[in-house]
Amino acid sequence: MDITFHDGVLRIALPKSISAANSVAVEEGLFAIEGVETAKELILDAEHLEYISSLGLRIMLKFKKQYKDIPLAVENASESVYEIFEITGFASLLNVKKK
Predict the structure, then answer these.
(1) Which of 28, 70, 73, 99 has its CA 20 to 30 A from that of 62?
(2) pLDDT in tens, 22-75
(3) Parallel, antiparallel, or unpaired for β 3-6 and 9-13?
């Protein structure tokens, strides 16, 4: 995951897929990021994300709960990934924005 921090905005580029095969590594990676608590805004960049399983959704929800006082958004979601967020109700919960 590529991570950038600029003007208080922490942007985290998500991998191509979040599934059972890599969910542990993704979760460990997200929660190992230093300085998250100092951010004014968190953005999970889904530009390269093609698939997300229920495990991936759980990780994002856990991340949101951990940093509940910091606004979080998922940006650049493809149509198919956005549909997964929308069907599950996560689109509004995580402020998901289409590409």
Answers:
(1) 99
(2) 999 999 999 999 989 999 999 999 999 999 999 999 999 999 999 999 999 999
(3) antiparallel
